[in-house]
Design a protein that fits this description.
Layout: E1 3-14, E2 18-22, E3 32-42, E4 45-47, E5 59-63, E6 66-78, H1 111-122, H2 130-142, E7 144-145, H3 156-162, E8 164-165, H4 167-180, E9 185-191, E10 201-207, E11 212-215, E12 227-232, H5 235-238, E13 241-244, E14 247-258
Parallel strand pairs: 7-8
Antiparallel strand pairs: 1-6, 1-14, 2-5, 2-13, 3-6, 4-5, 9-10, 9-12, 10-11
């Protein structure tokens, strides 16, 4: 089982009273366990509300005017990435209804629009666990990873047409194609080993009827060493920071290494 050290550092300056909700702590997930954790914040009042959604562990920071500094570090054990490619994927007839919402369209994953394309591409493929990798591989092979070719408003149907994007775009398209096939899929913000340049990474989890399986259509990081932070319908749910009030981001650093 991989053992990883993850770190995040965020520095910003508040021009007046400002509140920030951060998603930087390692999330709660069956496939990973936090062995050690440390948080240090200067210049802001820290509120850990104890609220959890889909594994996320948010922090709320309230700051007056001035600099704010956050440093977070954790040692995490991640389960080996073992999956059965022959497992039969469930259909709506026998799907766990707790997973139903992950088959539905969302703002950046319009699977209702992309559904016909998904059927045309993969409708004749055997409905087994291997289909997850087939969809992921198609996105990696057909969509170029090119920074600057999309923005915060780009949805998966646009990416399907343009065939370029960054990690969130490839993740949105992967999730949309899977949902278009009736397969539960959601976006994940993760710490990623060997990602260059280091940053928070957007990937996909798809459920094969047994467990959630990570998929990275960029091919930029070893999927067996990804550390989940938060999961959601699309990028709107997994942003690492949500702010209210005037502030300026001065620096963001993310690091992952083997322990």
């Amino acid at each position: 089982m991989p053992l990883l050290n993850v770190r995040a550092g965020v520095d910003w300056t508040a021009d007046d009273d400002a509140t920030t909700v951060l998603l930087v702590r390692v999330g709660e997930a069956d496939a990973q366990r936090v062995r050690d954790e440390h948080l240090e914040v200067d210049g802001a009042e820290v509120d850990d509300p104890g609220v959890r959604w889909d594994g996320a562990r948010p922090l709320r920071l309230r700051a007056a005017a001035g600099p704010v500094r956050l440093r977070y570090a954790a040692t995490v054990e991640v389960d080996d990435d073992v999956r059965d490619t022959d497992v039969e994927l469930p259909t709506l007839r026998d799907l766990d209804l707790g997973l139903l919402r992950w088959t539905l369209p969302s703002r950046y994953c319009p699977s209702d629009v992309i559904g016909p394309s998904a059927e045309a591409l993969f409708g004749d493929a055997p409905r087994t666990g291997a289909l997850l990798e087939q969809v992921r591989g198609w996105v990696e092979a057909n969509v170029a990873y090119v920074p600057g070719t999309s923005d915060a408003h780009t949805a998966a149907d646009e990416t399907l047409l343009r065939r370029t994007g960054v990690c969130r775009d490839l993740a949105h398209l992967t999730a949309s194609l899977l949902r278009g096939l009736g397969i539960p899929a959601r976006l994940v913000a993760a710490y990623a080993l060997d990602l260059d340049p280091p940053d928070f990474h957007a990937v996909v989890e798809a459920h094969d009827g047994m467990a959630w399986r990570l998929l990275d259509a960029t091919g930029l990081a070893p999927v067996g060493t990804l550390v989940r932070i938060v999961t959601g319908r699309d990028a709107a749910d997994i942003a690492w920071g949500t702010t209210e009030g005037p502030l300026t981001l001065d620096d963001l650093e993310v690091a992952v290494e083997r322990a």
